Automatic annotation (TrEMBL):
<dbReference type="GO" id="GO:0052757">
    <property type="term" value="F:chondroitin hydrolase activity"/>
</dbReference>
<comment type="similarity">
    <text>Belongs to the glycosyl hydrolase 88 family.</text>
</comment>
<feature type="binding site">
    <location>
        <position position="241"/>
    </location>
    <ligand>
        <name>substrate</name>
    </ligand>
</feature>
<feature type="binding site">
    <location>
        <position position="381"/>
    </location>
    <ligand>
        <name>substrate</name>
    </ligand>
</feature>
<protein>
    <submittedName>
        <fullName>Glycosyl Hydrolase Family 88</fullName>
    </submittedName>
</protein>
<dbReference type="InterPro" id="IPR010905">
    <property type="entry name" value="Glyco_hydro_88"/>
</dbReference>
<dbReference type="Pfam" id="PF07470">
    <property type="entry name" value="Glyco_hydro_88"/>
</dbReference>
<dbReference type="InterPro" id="IPR008928">
    <property type="entry name" value="6-hairpin_glycosidase_sf"/>
</dbReference>
<dbReference type="GO" id="GO:0000272">
    <property type="term" value="P:polysaccharide catabolic process"/>
</dbReference>
<feature type="active site" description="Proton donor">
    <location>
        <position position="181"/>
    </location>
</feature>
<dbReference type="InterPro" id="IPR012341">
    <property type="entry name" value="6hp_glycosidase-like_sf"/>
</dbReference>
<feature type="binding site">
    <location>
        <position position="181"/>
    </location>
    <ligand>
        <name>substrate</name>
    </ligand>
</feature>
<dbReference type="InterPro" id="IPR052369">
    <property type="entry name" value="UG_Glycosaminoglycan_Hydrolase"/>
</dbReference>
<feature type="active site" description="Nucleophile">
    <location>
        <position position="124"/>
    </location>
</feature>
<feature type="binding site">
    <location>
        <position position="257"/>
    </location>
    <ligand>
        <name>substrate</name>
    </ligand>
</feature>
<feature type="binding site">
    <location>
        <position position="253"/>
    </location>
    <ligand>
        <name>substrate</name>
    </ligand>
</feature>
<keyword id="KW-0378">Hydrolase</keyword>
Length: 422
C-alpha cells in the first residue's frame, strides 16, 4: 500500500542535475529543454480520455463523481465543493482530443450545475463554477450561455467578503474562518473582472490574497490551514487546522493550494510581490526534509515525525497524497514560465518528475480499473476519516490540467492559465 512507503521509497530522481544544466540560461517563458516527449504526454491524455469514459458510464445523470471506495463510485450533488471538477476534466480532455462525446457529457453536467451560481453559502464557487463554466466559455466562446452564469456566481462569491476582515469567509460555523484553500477561488474573481470590465472582483481577490500573506503564513513560508477572525474588528481569534496533523503542522495540500494561488495572482495582476512570495512557498515545499524523492508528498509534511501522543501516529505517518502532487505539478509548470535560467529549469524539472511518477504505477490506475478515476492514493481528510488512500476527482482534474499545460509548451503554444476571455 502506498500509505506504507518509506521516505526513500518510490522513484529515484531522473537525471535532475543533467536536465537542469540543459535548461539553464533560458529566459522566462521559454519552452526549450523540455524533457517529457510529446508522445508521452499525448499517451497520458489519451489514457485519461479512455478512463473518464469508463467513469461516465457509472455516474448518475443528476450526480457528480467524488471518489471510488470499496468498489463503489461515490458521488455528490452539485452543492458539494468538488462538483466542478468532473465537467472541467471532461472539457480539458475535449480540448485535447476534439471528442464531441466529451463535450456533450460536460454540457450535460453543466446543466445540473448551473443553479449553483446563486449559492451564497460557500466560498468554493471558483472550484465549482470556474473550473467548469470557465473552461466551457474558453473552449466554446459561447458568452450568451455562460457569461451571465459566471458573473452571477462571482457576485455570489463576493457576498461572503467582509471589508473589515479583508477576506472572504470560507465556512459557516467557527467565528469567521478563512482557509488557505480559498486562494484557489480568487482566479474566478480576477477573471470575472476581465469578463465584465468591473475591477471590483479583482480588487477583492487582491485584498484577500494580501490578508492571507499577512496572517496565514509563518516565517518559514508554511501556511496555517484555518485563520479564524472576529468579523467585528478583523482581529485573529485562532490559528488552527481542520485537515492537517495539528495546528502548527504543514498540511500538504494547503501548501500546494497557496503556491498555486500566488502564482496565479502574479499572472492576473502583474504584481511581482506575489511571484516573489510564490518562490518562497515553493522553496518551503520542495526543500522540505520530509519531501519524498518521487515528489508525491505525505498528506502532511510533519506526518512522518508524529509522536505517540498524536491520534494519527499509529496509522497515518506515511500516507501519500497524489492530489497535492497534481496541484504542485500544475503550479510549478506555470511558475517555470515566469522565471529564468536556473529557477526556470529547477521548477520545470520538478514538475516533470512529478508528472513522470504520477503517470506510472503505483499512482496511475490501469484503464478500466479504479472506477474510471485516473490516479490512486489521494487523501481527503485524515482527521475526518474521509477519503483516505483513494482516487479523488480533483486529483484527476489537476493532473489533466498539468498535462494540458505541458502539452501547450511542447507544441510551442503560448502558455495561459486563463479560462475566460472577454
Amino acid at each position: 500500500m502506498i500509505g506504507s512507503f518509506s521516505k526513500k521509497a518510490g522513484f529515484m530522481l531522473i537525471g535532475v542535475s543533467l536536465v537542469i544544466t540543459a535548461c539553464q540560461n533560458q529566459p522566462a517563458g521559454t519552452t526549450t529543454g523540455l524533457q517529457l516527449s510529446h508522445e508521452f504526454i499525448v499517451q497520458q491524455l489519451d489514457d485519461a480520455v479512455a478512463q473518464i469514459k469508463v467513469l461516465a458510464d457509472s455516474v448518475p445523470a443528476d450526480r457528480m463523481p467524488r471518489t471510488f471506495q470499496g468498489d463503489t463510485i461515490v458521488t455528490s450533488d452539485t452543492r458539494w465543493w468538488t462538483s466542478g471538477f468532473y465537467p472541467g476534466s471532461l472539457l480539458y480532455l475535449y480540448e485535447h482530443s476534439g471528442d464531441e462525446q466529451l463535450l456533450q457529457l460536460a454540457k450535460d453536467k453543466l446543466r445540473i450545475l448551473e443553479k449553483e451560481q446563486h449559492n451564497k453559502g460557500t466560498h468554493d464557487l471558483g472550484f465549482m463554477l470556474y473550473c467548469s463554466f470557465g473552461n466551457a466559455l474558453r473552449l466554446t466562446g459561447d458568452t450568451a450561455t455562460y457569461k451571465t452564469i459566471l458573473l452571477t456566481g462571482a457576485e455570489s462569491l463576493i457576498s461572503r467578503y467582509n471589508p473589515t476582515v479583508k477576506a472572504i469567509r470560507s465556512w459557516e460555523g467557527w467565528t469567521y474562518p478563512v482557509i488557505i484553500d480559498n486562494m484557489m477561488n480568487l482566479e474566478f474573481l480576477a477573471q470575472a473582472s476581465t469578463l465584465s470590465g468591473d475591477p471590483k472582483y479583482r480588487d477583492i481577490a487582491m485584498t484577500h490574497a494580501n490578508t492571507t500573506i499577512k496572517n496565514h503564513y509563518r516565517p518559514d513560508y508554511s501556511s496555517y490551514h484555518v485563520i479564524d477572525y472576529n468579523p467585528e474588528d478583523g482581529s485573529i481569534v485562532a490559528k488552527k487546522t481542520a485537515q492537517g496533523a495539528y495546528d502548527e503542522s504543514a498540511w500538504a495540500r494547503g501548501q500546494a493550494w497557496g503556491l498555486y494561488g500566488y502564482i496565479m495572482m502574479y499572472r492576473e495582476t502583474g504584481d511581482v510581490t506575489y511571484l516573489d512570495f510564490a518562490k518562497h512557498v515553493a522553496a518551503f515545499i520542495l526543500n522540505h526534509p520530509n519531501m519524498p524523492e518521487d515528489l508525491v508528498p505525505y498528506w502532511d509534511f510533519n506526518a512522518p515525525d508524529l509522536t505517540a501522543d498524536s491520534p494519527y501516529a499509529a496509522n497515518y505517518k506515511t500516507n501519500r497524497d497524489a492530489s497535492t502532487a497534481t496541484v504542485l505539478a500544475s503550479a510549478l509548470i506555470e511558475l517555470s514560465t515566469h522565471t529564468e535560467n536556473e529557477e526556470h529549469a529547477d521548477y520545470m524539472v520538478k514538475a516533470e518528475h512529478i508528472l513522470k511518477n504520477l503517470s506510472t504505477a503505483p499512482y496511475k490506475a490501469e484503464i478500466g480499473t479504479n472506477g474510471g478515476f485516473i490516479l490512486k492514493y489521494s487523501v481527503g481528510s485524515i482527521p475526518h476519516g474521509s477519503e483516505i488512500d483513494v482516487p479523488l476527482t480533483y486529483a484527476d482534474y489537476y493532473y489533466i490540467e498539468a498535462l494540458i499545460r505541458y502539452k501547450r509548451l511542447l507544441e510551442g503554444k503560448p502558455f495561459s492559465g486563463e479560462k475566460i476571455k472577454k
